[in-house]
Amino acid sequence: LCAERLAAGQDGALAAAVEEARRQAGKPEQICLTLLTDIARELGRLWTEDRCSFVDVTLGVMRAQEALLALAPRFASRPNMA
User: Fold this and answer.
1) What is this structure's pTM?
2) CA distance 23 to 20
């Protein structure tokens, strides 16, 4: 459902989904591995089913990437485990 809203240009859907995932999972890795991955997969499915255009998918993935970039500082603030 979030992917459909994102493809339709409803940016608030992604922000709400990321915030909810942050509350539930807490870890940026989980948000990337679950929410953002699922959204990208769903956008691809919507495209192959001809339920949204290539442009819609491209913009949706761009918005998901922006959400990932917004999470980047949380990755950098973690101690180096090497």
Assistant:
1) 0.70
2) 5
